[in-house]
Amino acid sequence: LVTRPTFAPLIQTFLNLDLNTRLSAPALETLAIVAYRQPVTRAQVEAVRGVDSSAMLRSLVQRGLLQENGRLEGAGRPILYSVTENFMQHFGLTGLNELPALETTEADTLWAATMLAESGEGVGER
To answer: Which of 8, 5, 68 is nearest to 39 (CA)?
Structure first.
């Protein structure tokens, strides 16, 4: 699908796309964690990243790339995050099955860190 260059700004506005906005490395890292492990809690993201991710998650929700997807049953009922349709459009995906496969070691690390967070021993647990 191709449009005339003169109509590009109009189409960008209509689709709510801001292609000039660059995402920082921490934002991309957070998006990747959520995309591969969704739905995921803040503590699970922090267990993988090793740093406080509340501001990054809030920013990505405000940008429309992540959404709150309910709450986890359990102590504190933490918010669950997942990617949005905006995320899919921004990265040109039609489904999460189009995400590149993780290497075994990366997948194992991601799984172990999120399991640690689910057990209540993750970063940010108080």
So the answer is: 68
Partners of 66 in the β-ladder:
83
> pLDDT tens for residues 24-83?
899 999 999 999 988 999 999 998 888 999 999 999 999 889 999 999 888 889 999 999
| Structural contact between residues 93 and 75, judged by C-beta atoms closer than 8 angstroms | no
The residue assigned the tokens 């509340």 is 54
Angle, helix 104-118 to helix 42-49, in steps of 10 degrees: 130
Helix axis angle for 54-62 and 42-49, nearest 10°, is 120
Angle at 99 between CA 98 and CA 103, to 5 degrees: 130
Is there a cis peptide before residue 39, judged by omega within 30 degrees of 0? yes
C-beta separation of 41 from 80 below 8 A: yes
The sign of the torsion formed by the CA atoms of 88, 22, 38, 79 equals negative
pTM over 0.85, yes/no: no
d(CA 104, CA 118): 21
